[in-house]
Design brief:
single chain, alpha/beta, Rossmann fold, 2 domains, 12 strands, about 15% strand, elongated
């Protein structure tokens, strides 16, 4: 074999190897022209809050030209189910994950595994222990709880006995709301917290039972209550307590402040059975969760913490246009 033929063969082989190396590298890069798939994993899929978050995620996906894979468990206390969802999503090879952790400790391992597998994770709605994630997009839940606490103190004119019915252990977002409420109430020296260690659970049914127990504990012989106010930090908890108060004829007789919103809560507010509730902006939470992850995937610098805001809703501001838009967004365009 001549030297020329040998040199030509070596040249062709080197060229092929160089093409493969450079070509594979370019294929693996999530460039602007690649159609990305982003998985959005909520805490649950039943409550109105998560439906609105879903709509916000779909809005961002459509605007940014990415596919949204919405996948979550039904119940908001099934940690193992959510871990399985994360693991299955990773196996499907998505480009990134937007996750609302059910438990701030239990979800840390699967998030670490995703990040180590070059599947970036944006945490949204509820926090996660550690810092191995791209960004945290959520309401400032402590501040939102403070809004509720300040309002309760004013409703009671600085004097009275209050119950805080907690949500679930390990839920970072609600724990911060409850902490913010207690922090704000301390400014009202005449207000006493008589119970703050009971958990309502994640469903309206479990909250109803917990509320019945609380009302029974603080009931007088004449049927009136020894408490003047109740606060809870979620929609299902609020609805459970509302039902318990209605069933006992006590709705509207004590000050009651809730969190998040639903048609039943709005109706109760109008009827005077609920004094107010703090709402987040779930549409904005879903939108910014996806927006932040996609920008990261496309090489942009993103903030480590993004506050999506909170608002106190009362009978006085319920019909204001900006409140109406917040409470009743049009989801039909995004959840077809």
């Amino acid at each position: 074999m001549s030297d020329n033929i040998i040199r030509a063969a070596v040249f062709l082989l080197c060229s092929a190897l160089l093409f493969c190396a450079t070509g594979c590298d370019k294929k693996d890069e999530p460039g602007e022209n690649k159609r990305l798939t982003v998985a959005v994993i909520p805490k649950g899929t039943i409550h109105e809050f998560w439906k609105t978050v879903h709509a916000g995620a779909e809005m961002a996906g459509r605007e940014m030209g990415v596919d949204i894979l919405w996948k979550g468990s039904l119940k908001e206390d099934d940690r193992e189910a959510q871990i399985s969802v994360v693991e299955n999503i990773m196996a499907r090879g998505v480009d990134g994950i937007v996750l609302a952790p059910l438990d701030d400790a239990a979800l840390r391992r699967p998030v670490d595994e995703a990040m180590q597998s070059d599947i970036p994770v944006v945490i949204f709605d509820s926090g996660l222990q550690g810092d191995n994630y791209v960004s945290y997009v959520a309401t400032d839940n402590f501040k939102a709880g403070q809004l509720a606490g300040e309002y309760m103190g004013k409703l009671l004119e600085g004097r009275g006995k209050v119950v805080v019915l907690r949500y679930a252990e390990g839920s970072d977002s609600t724990t911060k709301r409850e902490g913010g409420f207690l922090d704000a109430i301390e400014a009202f020296e005449g207000v006493e917290i008589v119970s703050s260690n009971r958990y309502a659970g994640v469903t309206t049914a479990s909250a109803l039972k917990a509320a019945e127990n609380i009302l029974s504990r603080f009931s007088r012989a004449d049927g009136d209550l020894e408490i003047d106010g109740i606060f809870c930090a979620t929609e299902p908890t609020t609805l459970g307590i509302l039902r318990a108060l209605q069933d006992t004829g006590l709705a509207g007789k004590i000050k009651f402040v809730g969190f998040d919103s639903s048609e039943k809560m709005i109706a109760a507010l109008r009827a005077g059975e609920l004094d107010g509730f703090v709402v987040q902006n779930p549409m904005r939470i879903g939108y910014l969760g996806v927006d932040t992850l996609v920008r990261h995937l496309r090489g942009d610098q993103v903030r480590r913490r993004i506050d999506t805001g909170s608002t106190l809703v009362t009978r006085e501001n319920l019909d204001q246009p900006e409140i109406c838009d917040l409470l009743d967004p049009d989801l039909t365009e995004w959840l077809k």
